[in-house]
What does this fold into?
Amino acid sequence: MIIEDLLEIENKRPAIFLDRDGVIIFEKEFLADPGEIEFIPGSLDGLRMIGDEFMLIVISNQSGVARGYFKESDVLEFNKTLGELLAEYGISVTAWYFCPHGPDSSCACRKPSPGMILQASSQFYVDLERSWMVGDKSSDIAAGRAAGLKTILVRTGYTGREPGGIDIIPDFIADNLYNAVELIIKGAWK
It folds into this structure.
């Protein structure tokens, strides 16, 4: 092993990967208007509990781009506004990733594929073994499992019953993001 590889291993940090809609904010079909952002109760308090131990990375399928409902620039603006709102509450998001492709795409980034997680992992030296995926859809859980993360399905949003969902069992189920973060922080998985 060369010194650069050792430094990379030593600098790895765990992350909490989060789906956006149905986890942090209420699920509204093909949401692109930042004026419609509405936080799910407990999500802000949960995110504030995370602290510096974990990076916070949001990954989201945004097929409204492929369907022509909005543009990639709209998603970027939406995420920027959401990030600014979160910052007002002292919450810092390390990175935002989204897949603009449709459900019939064979891309590597659309969940349930782990592409966004793996891209973030290589860009931010994420320690996948100590990282988590929190989502409201079976595709979120499948992506987390495929990347080797521990997974939590929240009962907000689709609760794993989205149209076209797949049968998959998360490591944990939580009522909301606040309860999911409690499980992670308190080390309930140990």
In short: The chain has a mean pLDDT of 92. DSSP finds six helices and six strands in the chain. The beta strands are 15-18, 55-61, 95-99, 132-135, 150-154, 172-174. Residues 10-185 form a domain with the Rossmann fold fold (CATH 3.40.50.1000).
